[in-house]
Specification:
Elements: H1 2-7, H2 15-25, H3 30-52, H4 61-99, H5 102-108, H6 113-151, H7 156-166, H8 169-197, H9 202-224
């Protein structure tokens, strides 16, 4: 049943629902994603410079920050932010629908709740999460450039050229995109399931929201920061 909700091709009449969910889950998460990405990129540049300058390798600052953001921190941290904001909202919304018997009313009217409620949210998370992760990484790199080049005095040409030479789409960017796609699917899957499975009470909704967030934190930290055997 759940696989049917994911792999079933969206019908044209359901695209307005998907677009609405993309706005709610993705667009409304842009501000917190951008602010966090800029802050983390700036901190990475500051701490990385303090370590690299000891060995006279501060010109590699751009490459190091870009690799860390694109492959690891960007997908994981943006996914954690997405889970905390959008995932919790999905669970609470569906839990409230269950508590107020809206889901039962849909079934009585012959409306497929999987197609109407579950599928748009799953597809919206699948689409929005990679875009948010890319925005996080791009803004983080600009934050690192602001701190490293403008504040700490790293040569601008070395900062950007090292990044351009060392970061490739197939080896680095694509891995981050794949991670963010998986995280987006897992977040929305867990959020929707917890909302459907929760008890139809206020305590049940609160417990399901917290439980869904904790499940993804364990999953995200366990898979996102596990060392890549090809880059150790």
């Amino acid at each position: 049943m759940w696989w049917h909700a994911i792999w079933r091709k969206p019908e044209w009449k359901n695209w307005p629902l998907i677009v609405t969910q993309i706005y709610r889950l993705g667009v409304l998460s842009v501000v917190i994603t951008v602010m966090s990405g800029f802050s983390i990129g700036a901190v990475l540049a500051l701490q990385g410079y303090n370590q690299l300058v000891r060995y006279g390798s501060e010109s590699a600052l751009g490459l190091g920050v870009a690799l860390v953001l694109v492959m690891e921190i960007g997908p994981v941290v943006s996914a954690l932010l997405f889970a905390g904001r959008a995932g919790s909202a999905i669970t609470a919304e569906i839990g409230l629908m269950k508590a107020t018997e809206q889901l039962s009313s849909m079934e009585m009217m012959g409306v497929d709740s999987l197609q109407r409620i579950v599928s748009p949210r799953l597809w919206a998370g699948f689409i929005a999460m990679p875009i948010l992760a890319l925005m996080f990484s791009v803004v983080g790199i600009w934050g690192a450039a602001l701190v490293g080049v403008e504040w700490l005095g790293v040569y601008e040409g070395a900062f950007w050229s090292g990044m351009q030479d060392g970061v490739t789409f197939s080896d680095h960017v694509l891995k981050g995109i794949v991670k963010s796609v998986v995280f987006g699917l897992v977040i929305t899957w867990v959020a929707v399931f917890e909302g459907y499975d929760c008890q139809a009470t206020s305590e049940g909704i609160a417990s399901a929201t917290t439980r869904g967030r904790c499940i993804f934190v364990c999953f995200g930290t366990g898979t996102g920061f596990f060392p890549d055997p090809y880059h150790v």
